[in-house]
Design goal:
290 residues, alpha+beta, Thrombin, subunit H, Alpha-Beta Plaits, 2 domains, elongated
């Protein structure tokens, strides 16, 4: 039996299909990179090669060609149709799949960065730099996973982690606990390690923000990766970088503070201007749990 090998999207579009001079209409009700299903009572025989016009809401038309791999007949109208393996597809169809693979949702975004790492790395052998980074990332990843997050992207000596939020108070507090434990791991394990073996200090800065993002796949070929994009991501990154200016280690945005203010101890930072963000922003330095 024909099975799709790629992610399937359940979406309905009007379609015209046919072979030779005979054309019929139907509803395309789910689709993937390799195939699709057309809901129709006008089913053609298995093995038929058909031309398909996919009518999109924006007025564009995707021109496809496929082979019918299975035919479904049922008393339920919406279950009647044909499973089709695509033989030929155009860029309009590829772009449609990319747009369907994007989801908007609220997430907790954590950025972390090693303070003064450029200076530190200049005094170390390349092998030692890689060793220290891997040791740091390994320890931080264990903490992030423990508190329900995932490291989504590594950037030099920093990284971005994401926490899904289903229960705001519980899940936002998990992000705070992750940040606090990250600092404890650095102070109790990594700092003594670098001081002993490399005669250097080791500190990090953490920024945490809660906001709406677009989740999707970017890149091409084998370099594709699942990530998040939005102004909220930029804001979280800027919050982390403000630690350098203020001499702090762990800063959070106002919206996080307002949602879990009774659960944490903080020091309010005066309103400051953040590059790329309109208006003055109030940040809070996390001192610990309440």
């Amino acid at each position: 039996m024909f099975r799709r090998r790629h992610k399937r999207f359940r979406k309905t579009f009007k379609t015209i299909f046919g072979s030779g001079d005979k054309n019929f209409t139907g509803n395309l009700c789910n689709l993937s990179k390799s195939g699709l299903f057309i809901s129709t009572r006008k089913c053609l025989p298995v093995g038929s090669i058909i031309d398909i016009e996919l009518l999109l809401p924006d007025g564009n038309i995707s021109l496809l060609k496929g082979e019918i791999k299975r035919v479904t007949k049922s008393k339920l109208i919406y279950k009647n149709g044909m499973g089709i393996e695509l033989i030929k597809k155009d860029s309009t169809y590829s772009n449609l799949l990319k747009s369907l693979d994007r989801v908007e949702k609220n997430v907790l975004i954590l950025f972390a960065d090693i303070r003064g790492f450029t200076t530190l790395s200049e005094n170390l052998l390349p092998y030692d730099v890689i060793h220290l980074l891997n040791r740091y990332f390994h320890m931080m990843n264990k903490v992030i996973i423990k508190h329900g997050g995932t490291i989504n992207n590594y950037m030099g000596d920093g990284f971005m982690a994401i926490f899904d939020v289903k229960n705001e108070e519980k899940d936002l507090l998990s992000g705070i606990k992750a940040g606090v434990e990250m600092l404890n791991v650095v102070n109790d394990q990594l700092r003594p390690y670098t001081q002993k073996f490399f005669k250097s200090d080791f500190k990090i800065g953490i920024g945490l923000h809660y906001g709406m993002v677009v989740v999707g796949t970017i890149g091409s070929g084998d370099s594709k990766r699942h990530t998040i994009i939005s102004n909220a991501v930029n804001f979280a990154s800027h919050i982390e970088s403000i630690n350098r200016l203020l001499g702090t280690e762990f800063l959070i945005s106002e919206n996080i503070y307002q949602l879990i203010r009774s659960k944490i101890r903080v020091r309010k930072i005066q309103k400051i201007s953040i590059q790329g963000i309109a208006g003055l922003q109030t940040l809070y330095e996390v001192l610990g749990l309440a």
